[in-house]
Amino acid sequence: xxxxxxxxxxxxxxxxxxxxxxxxxxxxxxxxxxxxxxxxxxxxxxxxxxxxxxxxxxxxxxxxxxxxxxxxxxxxxxxxxxxxxxxxxxxxxxxxxxxxxxxxxxxxxxxxxxxxxxxxxxxxxxxxxxxxxxxxxxxxxxxxxxxxxxxxxxxxxxxxxxxxxxxxxxxxxxxxxxxxxxxxxxxxxxxxxxxxxxxxxxxxxxxxxxxxxxxxxxxxxxxxxxxxxxxxxxxxxxxxxxxxxxxxxxxxxxxxxxxxxxxxxxxxxxxxxxxxxxxxxxxxxxxxxxxxxxxxxxxxxxxxxxxxxxxxxxxxxxxxxxxxxxxxxxxxxxxxxxxxxxxxxxxxxxxxxxxxxxxxxxxxxxxxxxxxxxxxxxxxxxxxxxxxxxxxxxxxxxxxxxxxxxxxxxxxxxxxxxxxxxxxxxxxxxxxxxxxxxxxxxxxxxxxxxxxxxxxxxxxxxxxxxxxxxxxxxxxxxxxxxxxxxxxxxx
Length: 491
Ligand SMILES: Cc1cc2nc3c(=O)[nH]c(=O)nc-3n(C[C@H](O)[C@H](O)[C@H](O)COP(=O)(O)OP(=O)(O)OC[C@H]3O[C@@H](n4cnc5c(N)ncnc54)[C@H](O)[C@@H]3O)c2cc1C
Prior knowledge:
- The structure is a single chain.
- A 5-stranded parallel beta sheet has the order 3-2-1-4-5.
- The longest helix is centred in the middle third of the chain and has 23 residues, at about 275-300.
- Helices cover about 45% and strands about 5% of the residues.
- It has helices spanning about 20-25, 65-75, 90-100, 115-130, 160-170, 185-200, 215-225, 230-235, 250-255, 260-270, 275-300, 320-325, 335-345, 350-365, 370-380, 385-395, 410-415, 420-425, 445-450, 460-475, 480-490; strands at about 5-10, 30-40, 80-85, 105-110, 135.
- Bound molecules: flavin-adenine dinucleotide (FAD).
């Protein structure tokens, strides 16, 4: 039907299991181009963004995040005709398409408010020019119509969501990558990507060997499913090492990996060796990813409100000095500081570490949780709007955590997950001479000697303040807290 078509790629930087690409190819076009818009909502704050509601003026994406994105784009550009255009999609795509005689554009549907706003505005401007934009679902395990409930009735509790989808829905098999494409790699975009990559600082030798792109992602999956996955349940809360968890998240976030393909590979690995509680647990974690996507589709902008989906009136602090201390890893709590320094240096930190630092941020510093989420957004190489804001909402107690006020004790966490102190020693070299258990909370004189800061807040007092304030806000909700009641009914 259409002779010249284009794929507008965003968080789907792959060729396998790509429903939009499959749809574009169905009518055998003569020419297929791929276009990536270097601008909002991927690398810049734009017209439809919430103002970056925080004070430090950091760019939207850190250098580490940029590196992974550039590598992923380069991996595509080496195989297909990928062009990079600059600006906001609804402003630049029409002209780009008209100049090339493109008759239809295909892409994947997003569910987050800013991405949706850009997609709608782009669809409208293309429609005016007589170019249809076709959007498909493509980055989740399930499609919206497969869910056994209307999206507005998404269970408030993850457990209920998991039970319902596990009982009722099968993950569809992934689509194969097209055998050949009427498309030839474009040299100029490769040159631009290589130059941008070249200008970035090298990967920190202390971090993990992440390399962006579909091919590297698929290789990582094969490597992990050949062995380490079979003990994932036992190792997944560790802080150090390449194989304690899958490390798939950056590839999943940019769509270099399709979750349905990962799921199919997992089932294959189970057939080849065994299905055990670890292989199940990896699927369980993919369901968390899934849950946060649908949570955003259900709640939209409320996910970004200070009081979250409940609208709690919480007096979050907005103190820049505290924010800075947390970002720079100088809170005086070694496990928190080690994780924050790892994040700042590499763009990645483990799930356990993310929980510890987010808890400290919301339950001890009592800072506006959206500042924490916005900082993670700039830094994480696996930044994913759904998983990041959903997890922060949950950690702040204004999302879908049935317990409401959840907190982590940094001392206990360090003893449990860094018993030898290797993680702290790696990221806080000034504490190298101190052994556990003193390392976990050195006394004041020792800190002075090692040039390490005193605790920025008293842990018990700050926790008590946060807890009292939180429950007062919950109880102060009109007609009691209806949403918490809903949680109880679901449980
Ligand atoms: C405050 C906070 C912010 C976070 N921000 C992000 C983010 O921006 N992007 C992101 O991908 N994950 C985020 N997570 C979830 C989780 O920390 C990472 O997915 C995980 O650490 C990635 O490591 P992995 O790939 O080795 O995970 P594994 O433990 O191997 O899990 C396999 C996959 O399951 C998914 N997954 C695991 N845990 C979660 C979870 N809690 N929520 C959603 N998906 C999960 C990921 O896709 C992950 O790659 C956040 C967690 C917290 C507490």
